[in-house]
Design brief:
Layout: E1 2-6, H1 10-26, E2 32-36, H2 39-48, E3 53-57, E4 59-60, E5 63-64, H3 65-73, E6 80-85, H4 91-96, E7 99-104, H5 109-116, E8 128-133, E9 136-141, E10 145-151, E11 154-159, E12 164-167, H6 171-177, E13 184-188, E14 191-194, E15 198-201, E16 205-208, E17 213-215, H7 218-238
Parallel strand pairs: 1-2, 1-3, 3-6, 6-7
Antiparallel strand pairs: 4-5, 8-9, 10-11, 10-14, 11-12, 13-14, 15-16, 16-17
Length: 239
Amino acid sequence: MHIVVCDDEPSEVKKICSLLQALCTRLKLSIELRGFTQYKEFLSYIAKVHADIVFLDICMGEHNGLEAARILRNFNQTCTVIFVTSSRDYAIDAFAVMAAHYLVKPVDSAKLLEALRRSPFVQPPRKTLTIVSDYVNTTIDLDDISYIDIISKVTQVHLASGKTFASYTPISTLAERLSNEPRFIPCHRSIIVNADYIQSIENDTIRLTDRTELPLPRKRYAAVRGAFREYIFAKTRSI
């Protein structure tokens, strides 16, 4: 992964590069990192070398990082552009050049990590659930699970693809493992549903996006609907 930093303040370039190097080492990412304080040298370099991520100061003396981003977009549409600036005044203009993020100085490791994760190259680890199915440890991506239920005393983990994993792990154990995941809502003593796949909640039925219908006890209706609305609200705010 090729990362380029440009800021007219040498101390800022040194600081950002140092933080990025430490972060990428911690994340076990192999990177090539270059820093520039001269606007024209930066443009000359990115015209020759394909950059994956660029950190750009906006106010660089007589030059402007927005202008540099527009030039960059002429020959590199896929580069993740992240602006680092001391002013909030250019935020709207920044996104006009498809900026992935806009950081206000001073920067720190947490801000840079958040910025890196706006790129397709640095994504948070996917959350999984491991069960024993057919006597084999099976790891399942949480995003793929639509619901979990019990059939003939056997726990069934249903995936959105239509595939099902059977396990003798008690559903209560899986509910405990998923207790820190708000999207997984216990809607029955023998059913856990992934809110991302809920299409509608009615008085006694939960309908999923694939048209599966799950029973909903009336005494659980208010709690399930409340948990679903709270999850959707929190999810919408984070987008």
